[in-house]
Specification:
The complex is a heterodimer of chains A (about 170) and B (about 375).
Chain A: H1 29-40, E1 44-48, E2 55-56, E3 72-76, E4 79-88, E5 101-108, E6 115-119, E7 132-137, E8 150-155, H2 163-166
Antiparallel strand pairs in A: 1-2, 1-3, 4-5, 4-7, 5-6, 7-8
Chain B: E1 5-12, H1 24-39, E2 48-53, H2 64-68, E3 79-82, H3 88-101, E4 107-115, H4 121-124, H5 138-154, H6 159-172, H7 187-192, E5 195-198, E6 200-201, E7 210-219, E8 230-239, H8 253-266, H9 271-274, E9 277-279, H10 287-294, H11 303-309, H12 332-348, E10 361-368, E11 373-380
Parallel strand pairs in B: 2-3, 2-4, 9-10
Antiparallel strand pairs in B: 1-7, 1-8, 4-7, 5-6, 8-11, 10-11
Helix pairs in contact in B: 3-12, 10-11
The chains are: A mainly beta (about 170), B alpha/beta (about 375).
């Protein structure tokens, strides 16, 4: 049985700061491989649920709502809508993008799930919900099976999407 | 028929930016000893220990419950670890309560903690992954877009978030354990603080704290301690996937279902009228109006109106976070348990200067991850 003498009455605690890093291998599985291989070709690939018809990007291989495998691959548009966003102005260890930057939820045309995207080529105070954006890819020689293949999104020049058209994705 | 279960002891550390005088083991032991003292028990009276904390990667200690067993008097006793991200302090208390309600144990010690100064939570929450762009800047970066969506959806004016930031910090002045004591805070200082994750400013965000919380839960035939027990009237957990098409990230289904369950158990049909006080996980100011709606304290879209009218202030009709809440102390893993613990303190009449007069029924709520984990309990002064 622990009694107080096991902890109390010892000397002061000493601490040591050590560098922090994390190396890992990532095994994406079948569904995410479709998405990642699409990125290596400069395409957004998703999967459709055979029951509800919703398109997931990236797909995890099943529909969380219906509990069935998503087997139909769907190629999505290069353009989408900013559903919501924030402007990040916080420095942190390992940060790879200069602050301030716009971190947006982008709903690609044809998809039923938004994902996080960087918005550039626009001042941070001009971003808005409903803005139409397009993906800008790295040079073809630099494409890899990773979202690093997408440099960022930028305004497409189309009129803003109506709030009613994306409010269910908030 | 489940056994009745009550909180008979509570303990917490003074939450601070850096507890460099203790290790994690010393810190959790401090809270546990305070809870045992409050229950007028010793280590040998405890049947089992349930421990919770946020992801192990924060401090880099994998399965820390193993090394904490001696410090918590758990050697040779059943010990469980709970993982539900930021809601874990609440879930941990609920797992401990299940062990009593099921009749398996008579007295269970439950402890939750975080030592943020030993960690880099921002880094741990923002590790690059091939299927995601490296944009996520900690929890604030995740939640700020959902806050913006709430503002758009409800039409809430900008000053609501600042009101919550001021209210909770002024409440914290009356809580000696709170990390932040900011007596001079006002709407202007919040508005002038640095914009971190637009629309969220520095003073609208929780601090980064070291701290631990502990409670002793007991069966009806094993009560002790100088304060009356806080009886558990309802307890529930719910979760949902982080990403699915049509997910309502502002007002998650799991939160609505969890509160419906806990209210049904506690016989609550009108939470604003029937509850006397609520301790709710509000790490960013706007989560007060958002959770007011999610928890059914008002109609959809009206949460900000309750905040604006002062309903949730210390002298309002339904005080929220009289302790100062997560906005004033955020030892992440412990933050959820502190909500549960503060609810218990209120109905036991032991909250001191932040005691809500005559509090008889209180809600404790915690959420975590990408708003996909929820844990709640309702505790009361009267036996259920």
């Amino acid at each position: 049985m622990a009694d107080d003498s096991t902890i109390e009455g010892r000397g002061p605690v000493t601490t040591l700061a050590t560098p922090i890093r994390l190396d890992f291998d990532f095994t994406p599985g079948i569904a995410q491989s479709v998405f990642l291989r699409g990125l290596a070709r400069g395409r957004f690939m998703g999967q459709r649920c055979p029951k509800c018809g919703k398109v997931y990007v990236p797909s995890r291989g099943s529909c969380p709502t219906d509990g069935v495998p998503t087997t139909e691959d769907v190629e999505l548009a290069n353009v989408g809508t900013v559903t919501t966003y924030c402007v990040v102005n916080v420095p942190f260890a390992g940060q790879s993008i200069e602050i301030p930057y716009i971190c947006a939820q982008v709903l690609l045309d044809g998809a039923n799930l938004s994902f996080m995207g960087l918005i550039q080529e626009i001042p941070t105070d001009e971003i808005r919900m409903g803005m139409r954006v397009e993906a800008v890819w790295v040079d073809e020689a630099d494409l890899t099976p990773s979202l690093a293949s997408v440099k960022y999104f930028r305004p497409s020049g189309e009129p803003d999407a109506d709030y009613e058209s994306y409010k269910e994705y908030l | 028929m489940a056994e009745r279960c009550a909180v008979i002891g509570v303990g917490q550390t003074h939450h601070k930016a850096k507890r460099d005088d203790v290790s994690i083991a010393g810190m959790v032991r401090e809270a546990a000893k305070a809870a045992l003292a409050d229950a007028e028990l010793t280590w040998s009276d405890i049947d089992a220990v349930v421990v919770g904390k946020a992801p192990d990667m924060f401090e880099g200690n994998m399965m820390p419950e193993l090394y904490l067993a001696p410090a918590l008097g758990a050697v040779g006793k059943p010990m469980l670890r709970v993982h539900t991200a930021g809601s874990v302090g609440g879930s941990t208390a609920l797992v401990a309560a299940h062990l009593v309600k099921s009749g398996i144990h008579k007295r269970v010690l439950t402890v939750a903690y975080e030592k943020q100064s030993d960690s880099d939570a921002m880094w741990a929450l923002s590790v690059p992954q091939p299927f995601a762009a490296p944009l996520l800047a900690g929890a604030g970066g995740y939640f700020a877009p959902h806050i913006r969506a709430y503002m758009r959806r409800s039409g809430a004016p900008d000053h609501i978030g600042r009101m919550v930031a001021v209210k909770d910090r002024l409440n914290a002045i009356h809580n000696p354990y709170a990390h932040l004591h900011l007596p001079d805070i006002d709407m202007k200082t919040v508005e002038e603080s640095m914009m971190l994750w637009d629309p969220l400013r520095y003073l609208e965000a929780c601090p980064s704290s070291d701290g631990a919380a502990a409670m002793v839960l007991a069966a009806e035939d094993s009560l002790s301690g100088g304060y009356p027990p806080a009886w558990i009237h309802g307890a529930a957990m719910r979760s949902e996937p982080t990403m699915f098409a049509g997910r309502d990230q502002v007002n998650p289904q799991a939160g609505r279902d969890c509160s419906a369950d806990v209210y049904a158990q506690a016989g609550i049909t009108d939470p604003r009228a029937q509850l006397d006080v609520a301790e709710v996980y509000v790490p960013f100011s706007w989560y007060e109006p958002m959770w007011l709606e999610n928890l059914g304290f008002c109609d959809l879209g009206d949460g900000w109106k309750l905040t604006e009218a002062g309903a949730t202030a210390f002298d309002g009709d339904i005080p929220w976070n009289p302790s100062g809440g997560v906005l004033s102390s955020n030892p992440i893993g412990a933050s959820g348990m502190l909500r549960f613990l503060e609810a218990a303190m209120q109905v036991r009449g032991q909250a001191g200067e932040h005691q809500v007069d005559g509090a008889g029924l209180a809600l404790g709520q915690a959420y975590g991850g990408g708003s996909q984990f929820f844990a709640m309990w309702v505790v009361g002064a009267d036996k259920p």
